[in-house]
Amino acid sequence: MRMPISLTRFVPCVLIGLMLAGCDTLYMGAMEKMGYAKRDILSSRVKAARDAQEEAKQEIQSALDQFGKVVNFSGGDLEATYKKLSGELETSEERAETVRKRISDVESVADALFKEWKEELDQYSNKDLRRKSEAKYAQTKTRYGEMLAAMKKAEQRIDPVLRPMRDQVLYLKHNLNARALSSLKGELIKVDAQVDQLVKDMNRSIAEADKFIQGLEKDEG
């Protein structure tokens, strides 16, 4: 019996939805059967989160530059300049959402890794080996906590930066004139300061991610 066309389109969407909703455990299980330990998956996801932050940082800086060009507009096609700003902001918001998703992915596999590791400590019969594994567990979890805190601190600064730009772009959509542009110069200074702090926090977060990855790779060596 042939499946109706509507179902052939619907079923893959349902499968994708299930994967996103709660099948990360199944994914990790499948990866482990292929030889990839949770530690490997964690390292890969931390790298992805680090790269997502770098991309978001660069895009937000680009949006700020474009915001400055609109506010300090001195000639040319104002409509085209505004549209570029709107596009930059939209891309920045997409990058921000990717950062949030990547951090969530990191937390998911890290929670599973540390839960499994802690449970396995009770399986040791050799006290010395257990003590060494316990010390490594505590050390790795501490490093992870520092990295995650840095990631979340940087991520939480993104929306306060994008929100005022979003408001200004919406305002300019119906008020694209010299008076409106002049009134936004004060906002540009505020946003500039916020972006500067965001970049600093993201750089710290990226550095923490690099340090954590190096620690995992060193432990494997």
Tell me what you see in this structure.
The longest helix is centred in the last third of the chain and has 47 residues, at 127-173. The protein has 221 residues and is mainly α. It has seven helices and no strands.
Radius of gyration: 23 Å
Percentage beta strand = under 5%
Shape: elongated
Catalogue the unreliable spans: 1-11
Which range best describes the helical content: under 10%, 10-25%, 25-40%, 40-55%, 55-70% or over 70%?
Answer: over 70%
Cα(first) to Cα(last) distance is 55 Å
Mean pLDDT: 86
Query: Which structural class should the secondary elements be placed in?
Result: mainly alpha
Secondary structure tally, helices: 7
Order of helices and strands: HHHHHHH
Quick one: how many beta strands?
Answer: 0
Q: Strand count, sense and closure of the main sheet?
A: none
Secondary-structure map:
Elements (H helix, E strand, L loop, with lengths): L4 H18 L1 H10 L4 H34 L6 H44 L5 H47 L4 H6 L1 H36 L1
Helix pairs in contact: 3-4, 3-5, 3-7, 4-5, 5-7
